[in-house]
UniProtKB/TrEMBL annotation:
Enzyme class, first EC level, given as a word: translocase
Originating organism: Arthrobacter saudimassiliensis
Domain of life (superkingdom): Bacteria
Protein name per Swiss-Prot or TrEMBL: Cytochrome c oxidase polypeptide 4
One Pfam match: Cyt_c_ox_IV
Amino acid sequence: MKVETKLFMYMAPFFAVVGVVYGWLVEWTEPVGYLALFLTAGMSLMVGFYFGFTGRRIGPRPEDRLDGEIHEGSGEQGFFSPWSWWPLVLATACAGAFLGLAVGWWVLFISVGLAVVALIGWVYEYSRGAHAH
C-alpha cells in the first residue's frame, strides 16, 4: 500500500498550506473554508497513517512489487455479505438524521434510534438465525 500511503500523506501538507493561504486571503473572517481545509488535511493524515500501518502489517501486495504477477492477486479478497439489508437501513437512518437537522429535531431523534438498531443488526447479522457462524 505504498502508493496509497504516499498519496494521502502528500495531500495533507497541501491541504494545510491551502487552508493557510485561504484563511489569509479572507483575513480569517470566514471560518468555514479554512477550517474545512484543515480538517481535510487531518483526515488525509489519518487515512495515510492507516494505509501505512496496514501495509506494514500485511506486507507488500503484488501491486507494490516490481516483480508482482497478476495471478498473485487472485483468490479470496475478503468476506462480503451478499444479501444484507442493514447497510440500506443505516444509510436511510443517516439521511433521516441530516434531514432532521434541517426540518426538525424530532426527525433526528427517530433517525438516531433507527441508526442504533441498524448498527446492532449489521454487527450481529451472522451471530443468529440461519447464517450464524
